[in-house]
Design goal:
This protein has helices at about 15-20, 40-45, 50-60, 70-80, 115-130, 145-155, 170-180, 195-205, 210-215, 225-240, 260-270, 285-295, 315-325, 330-340, 350-355, 365-380, 385-395, 415-425, 450-460, and strands spanning about 5, 30, 90-95, 100-105, 135-140, 160-165, 185-190, 215-220, 250-255, 275-280, 360-365, 405-410, 445-450. The protein has about 475 residues and is of the alpha/beta class. It has a domain at about 90-110 and about 225-425: Rossmann fold (3-Layer(aba) Sandwich). The chain starts with a strand and ends in a 7-residue tail after the last helix.
């Protein structure tokens, strides 16, 4: 397996280079040069396997065996999911005649990001141990990536991790899951700005070749291909349990940075029988506008009840663009330059039209989100977080196509207790392992949205790439 950049001017890379670098040198994102295929028999064989075994089978084609042997991969996946608090890891719950909820919040930080990041931490440790090197992880989070990445990377000998998050725009539980981690290799940076500002700062540091080479910068955001790869497995697991490959499926995914729903697209490209993908958006609806009418234009980010989706520039959308533009890296680079300069994606209507055989989108505002949390509780006796509520509402707004439909539940309701209590009058409690979270001391610095300030903070605290 070789990987190419969506912008076309970075040489092909093996998995090791893609894992450790995260972002391509030309500013693009890595994707496989060709999609590996899983035939119907291979998909059917996943039913009945333990979740770590499913992950190992799904990701195996993406990783060269000379780097990670079958035995290594089995160990890494077993360790990755050992701390999950449900025996099925990713259980399914039926919510109507043809709709299931895929619960992705039973990991250590109560969000779907744990699925890929726990494995990513193990892969980093394995590869860096072979190389005798260390890395500096720099990431941006709109809420859940930060805590999941920190939990995966904390106390590891070969990693430092710096996580940027927007001041006042993550929930208190999300923030404290990052800032209360007492580990010498963890650094939290609260940025006076939006998530898009944080993401731009991270990309700018990756564009600084001197900083990147001195400290071995790498990414844990879904700009790192390994994140997307790891998330693809739960689509296969859910479909196999519900009868794949003998029937088709649709998935409804609450979406901010486009990485989660893009993972479903990858599963389809590998052979999973996916008929439809619904992109569920909140009031920050740039993706809804694109899929609905071809309008991808940047507007201001508005705080919402579903803060992990408060994003205007969805990094992983570039990966889909690459395929929609016939894998023409130069065309993608030109389009992204125009998008960032003018705030409008060129040729958006054509690209949207070309995507509609597979994708559609729905949008819920905050009032609709609260109504959906309340309705689900009254009708099903379940508490759901606002991101999951957006997805359930999007499913209800979408025409039924006769397929089995899987809605992704991406976070535990206790991560967003204020919204859940506002809707239902019930304040969900944190699980026992986090019961004292609000009493733990916090460790973070607050910096302006200024590249020089953030870069110097990283330089002052990170350890150079090569181990002594």
């Amino acid at each position: 397996m070789k990987y190419v950049s969506t912008r076309g001017s970075t040489p092909e890379q093996a998995f090791e280079g893609v894992l450790l670098s995260g972002l391509a040198r030309d500013g693009g994102l890595f994707v496989p040069g060709a999609w590996p295929a899983m035939d119907p028999a291979a998909i059917a064989s996943l039913d009945g396997l333990a979740y770590p075994q499913i992950v190992a089978r799904v990701v195996r084609p993406f990783i060269e065996e000379t780097l990670v042997s079958d035995d290594d991969l089995a160990r890494i996946t077993e360790e990755a999911y050992a701390g999950f608090r449900h025996p099925a890891i990713a259980p399914l719950r039926q919510i109507d005649a043809d709709t299931w909820l895929l619960e992705l919040f039973h990991g250590p930080t109560l969000a779907f990001k744990d699925f890929a990041l726990q494995m990513l931490g193990g892969l980093f440790d394995h590869v860096l141990g072979l190389r005798g090197e260390r890395l500096t992880i720099v990431g941006a989070t709109s809420g859940d990536t930060g805590s999941a990445a920190i939990e995966a990377c904390r106390d590891r000998d070969n990693l430092d991790i710096f996580m940027l998050y927007p001041e006042g725009r993550v929930s208190e539980v999300q923030r404290r899951q990052m800032t209360t981690v007492d580990a010498a290799n963890v650094y939290n940076i609260e940025v006076r700005g939006t998530f898009d500002d944080c993401q731009d700062l991270v990309k700018a540091m990756f564009a600084d070749d001197g900083l990147r080479d001195e400290f071995g910068l790498s990414a844990v955001n879904s700009i790192n291909w390994a994140r997307v790869m790891g998330q693809t497995a739960y689509y296969f697991a859910a479909a196999a349990r519900l009868g794949a490959p003998g029937r088709e499926f649709s998935f409804v995914v609450p979406t901010g940075n486009f990485g989660n729903v893009y993972s479903a697209y990858v599963a389809r490209e590998m052979g999973l029988p996916v008929s439809h993908l619904v992109v569920a958006a909140n009031r920050n609806d740039i993706l809804y506008r694109f899929f609905d009418r071809g309008d991808m234009s940047i507007s201001g980010v508005e705080p919402s009840l579903s803060p992990s989706m408060d994003i205007q520039v969805s990094s992983n959308f570039e990966r889909l663009m690459f395929d929609l533009m016939d894998r023409d890296g130069t065309a993608v680079a030109d389009a992204m330059q125009a998008f960032r300069t003018d705030g409008v994606l060129p040729d958006g209507e054509r690209l949207s039209t070309d995507s509609r055989d597979l994708f559609s989108a729905q949008r819920l505002d905050d009032d609709e989100t609260l109504s959906e949390i309340r309705r689900v509780h009254e009708e099903a006796g379940m508490l759901v977080d606002p991101h999951t509520a957006v997805a359930i509402g999007a499913a209800r707004k979408s025409p039924r196509d006769g397929t089995k439909r899987v809605v992704l539940a991406t976070a535990h309701p206790a991560k967003f207790p204020d919204a859940v209590e506002q809707a239902t009058g019930i304040r969900p409690g944190l699980p026992p392992h986090l019961s004292d979270l609000l009493d733990r001391p916090e460790r973070a610095v607050t910096l302006d949205n200024d590249l020089s300030a953030v870069r110097e903070h990283v330089r002052a605290h990170a350890t150079p790439r090569r181990k002594d």
